[in-house]
Amino acid sequence: MRATGTHLVWMLMTTYKQGDIVLVWFPDSNLLTAKKRPAIVLQADNLQTELDQLIIGMIITNLIRKEHKSRIFVDIQMKTGQRTGLLSNSVIMTDNIATVRLSEIYKGIGTFVEMDILKESLRHTFGI
Predict the structure, then answer these.
(1) Does 8 map to a domain?
(2) 68 phi/psi in degrees, rounded to 5
(3) How many domains does the chain have?
(4) What is the CATH number of the domain that holds 96?
(5) Which candidate, 76, 64, 61, 72, places its Cα nearest to that of 95?
(6) What is the pLDDT of residues 31-46, one digit of tens each?
(7) Per residue in 33-61, is it b (16+ CB within 10 Å) or e — as a string?
(8) Domain range spanning residue 91?
(9) pTM to 2 decimals?
(10) Parallel, antiparallel, or unpaired for β 90-101 and 105-111?
C-alpha cells in the first residue's frame, strides 16, 4: 500500500517472473475482444513500475508460424517443454505482445526456463 495525497491505494504485488507461462485474457489486435490463452511473461523481474500490469507474449499452437527468429518452438516431449505446462507443441511469439492488467491473468501454469533463447528472440524482435 502507498499513500497518494490523502488516499491510500492498494498495490497488487505480482509473483510472476520473466519466463513464467500464464493463462490470460489476451487481447485481439482490434483491442475490443480477447481470448483466454497461454502467454509468457516478458518483462524484467522486479521492474517496479507501480502499475498492476505485465508485459506478455502470445503463445499459439499454429506450428506453421514457428520459422521466424522472433518465435520459439516449444516441444512438450522435451523436459524443458514439459516445464511450461503447455498441453501441446506451441510457438512463443515475442513479436506479438500485450500489456495486461494482473486481474486478466487466470493463473500460472509453468515456466519457460531457456532464458538465453527467450532473450535472443526478444533482441531480434526489438533490434537491440
Answers:
(1) no
(2) -150, 145
(3) 1
(4) 2.30.30.110
(5) 72
(6) 788 889 999 999 988 8
(7) eeeebbbbbbbeeeeeeeeebbbbbbbbe
(8) 17-121
(9) 0.85
(10) unpaired
